[in-house]
Design brief:
The longest helix has 22 residues, at 3-24. The chain folds into three domains: 1-30; 31-60; 63-91, no CATH class. A two-stranded antiparallel ribbon has the order 1-2. The protein is built from one helix and two strands. The protein is 24% helix and 4% strand. It is elongated. With 91 residues, the chain is mainly alpha-helical. Strand 1 and strand 2 form a beta hairpin.
């Protein structure tokens, strides 16, 4: 594929992306969370327990405060389920 053909295809893709985004302007669409699955990364509702697109169970963002109760994943007190705290989550 020549450089100019490659550039033309890129411009087509950019135009399609802008068209898709422009159609969402004014609709109230504002993703606040994305699926953590590397093969998905679709925008999701932050209240979802799993991604509706791929079913990935760890779709929720990591909490920013330490929990006062036991972690459901590892069972430790005060674990917030983050990578640095909860090793069970990432197995």
């Amino acid at each position: 594929m020549s450089r100019s053909a490659h550039d033309a295809r890129n411009l087509e893709q950019i135009a399609l992306l802008h068209e898709h985004l422009d159609s969402r302007v004014g609709s109230g669409y504002r993703p606040r969370a994305w699926c953590l699955n590397p093969g998905c990364h679709e925008p999701i509702d932050p209240a979802c327990a799993a991604c509706p697109h791929c079913g990935h169970p760890q779709a929720l963002p990591v909490p920013t405060t330490v929990s006062q109760t036991r972690c459901l994943l590892c069972g430790r007190d005060g674990c917030d389920g983050s990578l640095s705290q909860c090793t069970e989550r990432w197995r």
